Amino acid sequence: MLTDRAQRALDTIDGQTLEEMRALRDETERFMQRYKFGMDEVITKLSILREEFSQAHDYNPIEHISSRLKSLDSVIEKMARKGVEPSFEAISQTITDIAGVRVTCSFVSDAYRIYELLVAQRDIRVLQVKDYIAEPKPNGYQSLHVIVEVPVFLSTGAHPVVVEVQIRTIAMDFWASLEHKIYYKYDRQVPQELLDGLTDAARTASELDTRMERLHREVHGDPRANARLRRTSIA
After folding, report:
1. Annotated catalytic residue: which of 164, 193, 213, 218?
2. Is 146 in contact with 114 (CB distance < 8 Å)?
3. By the number of CB atoms within 10 A of the CB, which of 118, 134, 191, 223 ranks highest?
4. What is the C-alpha end-to-end distance of the chain, expressed in Å?
């Protein structure tokens, strides 16, 4: 139900403008829906890998898969922050994290293994890789960020959709979750002593990852080398 004020404002709009508004609303919904479908495609690929590992292998590197689709308000805020032209084409070319999938693994080597298995699939196109595990951010943040393009097949044909995939260990994910909560609580104006504590905690989490993986290898062995990815950008 519209408020009286909203209804009066709506009554002042001529028919052509109203139709244009409805058309824009419908196009916006279709635009965001494609990102949801692209996200679902990536989730399906990862879920298949997870189930296959559970049934056919002794060890499953995927602990958890989660996802999130940015709200329209968040997309608009990022457009304003980055100075993006208000067009669907500009948004799709500039904002790469509208659809996001996160994969949580037990060990660092698992993160690289999942990356290799995902990008080896023929319909996945890698646009960019940022290896914050090999080169953590100054605050200690660690994660493997992969921007991929996946085709979504609709009644109007195939549509390439960009999805951000973050792959990290349980320790990295715990640290990132805590950092997010702290920044939210302090509205991004975090006291320096807390920032120092977060950086120190990130170092501790990294050491824990290394120790736990070493123990895992001693028990189970590790036939694979834990190769490090170089940060790359593919046009």
Report:
1. 164
2. no
3. 118
4. 47
Question: 62: exposed, middle or buried (C-beta count within 10 Å: 0-12, 13-18, 19+)?
Answer: buried
Catalytic: 135? Answer: no
- Predicted TM-score of the model (pTM): 0.82
Cβ(166)–Cβ(39) under 8 Å? no
pLDDT digits (tens, 9 = 90+) for 13-65: 666 666 777 777 888 899 999 999 999 999 999 999 999 998 988 889 999 99
Per-residue pLDDT tens digits for 51-110: 999 898 888 999 999 999 999 999 989 988 888 888 888 898 899 999 999 999 999 999
The rounded distance, in Å, linking the Cα atoms of 162 and 124 is 10
* Nearest-angstrom CA–CA distance, 190 and 187: 8
Upper half-sphere CA count for residue 47 (Cβ side, 13 Å): 9
Q: How far apart (Å, rounded) are the C-alpha atoms in residues 173 and 170?
A: 5
Measured distance CA(220)–CA(110) in Å, rounded: 14
- In this prediction, residue 11 carries a pLDDT of 62
Distance separating alpha carbons of residues 142 and 192, to the nearest angstrom: 20
Judge contact between 91 and 78, C-beta under 8 A: no
Q: How many CB atoms lie within 10 A of CB 169?
A: 27
Q: What is the pLDDT of residue 225?
A: 42
CA pair distance 113, 213, nearest whole angstrom: 14
